[in-house]
Specification:
Helix content: 10-25%
Number of strands: 24
Order of helices and strands: HEEEEEEEHEEEEEEEEEEEEHEEEEHE
Distance between the termini: 116 Å
Number of domains: 3
Mean pLDDT: 79
Strand order of the largest sheet: 17-18-19-23-22-21-20
CATH class of the largest domain: Alpha Beta
Shape: elongated
Low-confidence stretches: 1-25, 210-221
Radius of gyration: 30 Å
CATH topology of the largest domain: Protein Transport Mog1p, Chain A
Largest sheet: 7 strands, antiparallel
Structural class: alpha+beta
Number of helices: 4
Strand content: 35-45%
C-alpha cells in the first residue's frame, strides 16, 4: 500500500514539474531582448514555427530577407533554434533556426538582385525579338505542341518571357501565324481573334493559310482603312508613329510607338468576329454579352474593368492590371462586327517595367478621340 502511495505522489510531483520543464525547454531567456536580422543565403524567406523543430503542422508564418527580429533567447535543449517575439504565434512568440539570423543588417537581397538581372536580360531579349519582327509573306497554320509535364503553352503580348501573358493554350490548339522572329511566331488565336506571340519551340506547322489581297494602307495622321469597311482616324500623340505590321483579309495589326523609349507602346489589333456580325457598336451589346467579354480578361489576369467612351459616344471597355506594377492596359471596343483592341505596355527598353497613372491616362485620352468614318 505504501508503494502505491509513493508512486501516486511521485506521479503528482512529476506532473507538477511539467510546466517548468516546458518553460525550460522553451529557451534560456536573455536579460534583455536582442535585435537581429533575417539572413538567408539565397535571399529567401525564413520560416517561423510554433516549436523548435521542423514539422508540417507547426509553421506560423515567414519573415522576409533583411527583416528585423527581436530575439528573446536560445532554446536550451537545442541551441540551433532561437526564441523570438512573433505576434502571430501563441503567446506572441515563435521559433526560428539560429543560422538564419545575423547580428548586422545584411546587404541587398541576392535573390532580388538575381531576379532583377534576369528581368533586364529578358527585356533585352524581348527588345531584340521585337526589332527583328517581320510579316510572313504567306501565313501559316500552326498548332500548339505542349510539353507533357505542363500540358499547356503561354500566349503572350510580345515575343519574349518578359511580355505579359494573354492566356495559356492546350496541346493541339490551332492558330494562324502572321509574323515571326527567329524564336517566336506572331499569331492570331482563331477562337478569340486575339493577336499574340508563341514560342516556336512549342508549335507544329500544319500548312500555309490563304492570303487575301488588300488595298494599300493609308497611315497619314493616324488614319487606318480597315478592309474598305470603315476607317479608324485619330491624331497620334506627340513623338508617336504608327507601323502596320500585318493586314490580311479581316485582320489588321499595327504598333504605335514613340522615339522616346520611356514612353509606352500600343499594339492595335482589329479583327472581324462572326459572333458580333450584327453589332454596329459596343453600345449595342447586351449586359450578358458585356459580362462574357469581361470574363475573357478576368479569367487569366487580375484586372479592374471600367468603361469609357470616345468623343463620338462609342463605348470603350478598359481592363487595367491590378497591382503596384501595372504592365498592361487593354482597351477594347466593337464596331461593325470588328473587335478593335489597343494593348498598352511599357517599352522594353524603358528603365521602368511599369506603367504610370499619367501614361495610362494618356492612352485613354488618345483613344477617346478615335473616330470611325465610312470609307468613300
Amino acid at each position: 500500500m505504501k508503494k502505491v502511495l509513493s508512486l501516486v505522489l511521485a506521479a503528482a510531483l512529476l506532473l507538477a514539474c511539467v510546466p517548468a520543464v516546458l518553460a525550460n525547454e522553451m529557451g534560456g531567456y536573455y536579460s534583455n531582448p536582442v535585435t537581429m536580422y533575417v539572413y538567408t543565403d539565397d535571399g529567401g524567406r525564413l520560416n517561423v514555427r510554433s516549436e523548435p523543430r521542423v514539422a508540417k503542422n507547426n509553421l506560423l508564418g515567414r519573415l522576409d530577407y533583411g527583416s528585423t527580429v527581436t530575439v528573446l533567447g536560445v532554446v536550451v535543449v537545442n541551441s540551433d533554434w532561437m526564441l523570438i517575439s512573433y505576434s502571430k504565434g501563441p503567446e506572441g512568440i515563435g521559433y526560428v533556426q539560429r543560422r538564419y539570423l545575423s547580428d548586422t543588417k545584411p546587404g541587398p537581397n541576392p535573390k532580388k538582385q538575381q531576379e532583377d538581372a534576369q528581368r533586364k536580360k529578358d527585356l533585352a531579349e524581348l527588345n531584340r525579338q521585337l526589332a527583328s519582327l517581320r510579316s510572313l509573306t504567306t501565313p501559316l497554320m500552326i498548332a500548339v505542341r505542349a510539353p507533357r509535364v505542363s500540358g499547356w503553352v503561354n500566349f503572350r503580348v510580345g515575343p519574349g518571357v518578359a511580355a505579359s501573358l494573354i492566356t495559356t493554350m492546350g496541346d493541339g490548339h490551332e492558330l494562324k501565324a502572321i509574323g515571326e522572329t527567329d524564336k517566336w511566331y506572331q499569331a492570331i488565336d482563331l477562337n478569340t481573334s486575339k493577336t499574340g506571340f508563341i514560342s516556336k519551340n512549342y508549335v507544329t506547322v500544319l500548312s500555309t493559310a490563304p492570303v487575301v489581297p488588300v488595298a494599300p494602307e493609308k497611315e497619314a495622321m493616324g488614319t487606318l482603312n480597315v478592309n474598305g469597311e470603315f476607317a479608324l482616324q485619330c491624331q497620334l500623340p506627340p513623338s508617336y508613329t504608327m507601323q502596320v505590321i500585318n493586314q490580311l483579309g479581316e485582320k489588321l495589326t499595327a504598333f504605335i510607338s514613340s522615339s522616346d523609349v520611356e514612353k509606352p507602346i500600343l499594339q492595335l489589333s482589329v479583327a472581324y468576329n462572326e459572333l458580333y456580325s450584327g453589332v454596329a457598336r459596343m453600345n449595342d451589346l447586351t449586359a450578358e454579352q458585356l459580362t462574357q467579354l469581361e470574363e475573357t480578361f478576368t479569367g487569366m489576369n487580375e484586372v479592374n474593368i471600367t468603361y469609357g467612351a470616345t468623343a463620338y459616344g462609342t463605348k470603350l471597355l478598359i481592363a487595367r492590371e491590378i497591382g503596384a506594377d501595372t504592365d498592361f492596359v487593354d482597351i477594347l471596343t466593337v464596331y461593325k462586327g470588328y473587335f478593335i483592341e489597343f494593348v498598352m505596355t511599357p517599352n522594353p527598353r524603358a528603365q521602368s517595367g511599369a506603367l504610370t497613372d499619367q501614361q495610362i491616362q494618356m492612352c485613354i485620352d488618345f483613344l477617346s478621340e478615335v473616330d470611325f468614318v465610312e470609307v468613300v
